[in-house]
Amino acid sequence: MKLFSASLLCFLVSWVTCASAGRYEGFQVLRVSPRKDVETKLLERMEQEGYLDVFRRGRGGWGSPRLGARDGRLVTRFCSPVMYGSVDVLVDKAKAKLLADFGLKSDTLLSDVDRLVENQMRGRGQVRYGNVTWDRYNTLEEIYDYMDHIASEHPDVATVFSLGKTWEGRDIKALRLTRDGDEDTKPIVFLDAGFHAREWIAPAVASYTFHSLMHDATGLLSSAVWVVAPSMNPDGYEYTWTGDRLWRKTRSNRTSVCKGVDPNRNFDFHWMEVGASDNPCSEIYAGPSALSEPETMALADYMEAHRGRVKAYLTLHSYSQLFMYPFGHTLDLPEDWEELDRVAKLAVEALTAVHGTEYEYGSCSSILYLDAGSSRDYVKGVVEVPYVYTIELRDQGYYGFLLPPEQILPTCEETWEAIRVAAKEALAL
Ligand SMILES: [Zn+2]
User: How many domains are there within the chain?
Assistant: First the structure.
């Protein structure tokens, strides 16, 4: 164990150096398959201490008990010693060797991370004012311009406003869309994306939602006020374009070693109880205190100010193809889980009908893992919004965060159907 700790310390130094360079030459994504308790614990500790960037953890987290809610029945099952979930990790050559030296079995998912990053950035900055397309990823400026363009072209329907300022002073812009008046009394559907900066497909889907809502003829805009915030972590998103494509957290700067907080572990509901880290270098660092980040506070403030009016909260992440309702901090389900499950099923069926993409649905802790401090759990547990879902978009881990531009439009098209159906059910249309 001593040897293990010493090796980890050595690697902390090289890890900080490599990650901050923001270049991915020689980096790979490995799918590691732990076979014993000790291997799972090793990976968990490496993530907690910030040595390892875990893109996707195994189902059930780190060998935790799993609870399934399906077909009106609750099923509890505990991971047996041979049922460890595989884990996707980003490694350079040295870290790949370290994992192999520890005897961990892995397969290479992506051998050329650098080339895929380049592919995702192609066409950068070419979009003229408001002329967004979904055949490539858009920068923050392009997305914000698109929102301003919609608001200026359709002032009777759309308004841009700021939910608050980020750590670096950027506006967290949202587009408010509604038709036929009563803006102050109608129920609200709130959709956000981009809390995790590197999940580029999420802001793309959110901005496609503007387009879809503007063309909707089924009454979605007359029955509700839609608030869509495509980038809840604009500092981080900007940094993924300019500094480090695979940056996840906010950009707050409190320690000299590691910047940023995982905003989706920072919300004030069972904060830091499970699935989060108190180490500032960890990708799942929950922050010095709950709601320490201006980005999470901005959402909390909006939700508190509109308590009782928000009927649905949908938050977009990637990747894994999951449609999840609360809770993540406990295996217990919300009281209305059967209704949440019913709507999730309808939404997923609508999604799959578009391009055949398969999603799983259920409570976060039952189909993924335990995590405390998410916006999803906060909005359900504290603000008591009835319909709350996290959508983990494409894919299931082949490209992961480096989803090629060719998949943006199909992902948008299918996800819009799920959003539409979930909103329709939440608004009882
Ligand atoms: Zn995420």
Answer: 2
